[in-house]
Here is the input.
Amino acid sequence: MRIIRLDTVDSTNKYALTHLDTLTDRAVIVAEEQTAGRGRLNRVWLSPRGENIYCSIVLKEQKSNPLLTVLAALAVARTVRGRGLAARLKWPNDVLVHEKKICGVLAESNAKGLVVGIGVNINMTAESLAALDRPATSLRAETGRIHDRGKFLRELLKKFFAFYEQARRAGFAKLAEIWQNELDLTGKRVKIQTVQQEFYGTVIQIDKEGALLVATAQGVEKVLAGDVHVV
Ligand code: BTN
Here is the structure.
């Protein structure tokens, strides 16, 4: 693993995708700030200077796998729990504390490989979080103290690559199982919002590829990306 530290960048994901030719497998791009941080569903990821973690992990794999984003969310949730907070996973790959988002993961790819982008709110103040359009939190807002970003990142990357090695050796099915247990969505009535549509249904399970299988009046929908709200 090689860490490339940038001061300011538009987006660590965009940087990694643009430089995939010269970046090695498992390189990690970390920035102090992002001027155009990217979120899922074309949202903006607010990335103020020096407060949070903005990083992108390069994986020189040909085939995109939705469970890679799960790896990242699980690694973040465990690192947050190591600080005494009850972190919960929210499908597809958010981490929440007290029902507020503390981390988002965005995986992107091109023909040359994949990039797993991770944003974790570490030292953002409760005031700046309140300005966001969705409920969000940070380690600082939850604990009332400043946290060491470098230490968090080291622990997070160690966990991520440990999960990654395990999944490559033993397969991703085990990971889907851990995820399914942590998500606790099975049997719940949900509203799904994707870029194309919005519908209601009951969650059957997460399949081996990480898709959410939802029973609706029209049949079973397989959802790979979107927002899920328990109703
Ligand atoms: C989400 O919408 O929940 C995903 C947010 C992902 C944000 C991270 S920050 C580092 C990386 N670079 C980006 O531009 N986005 C991801």
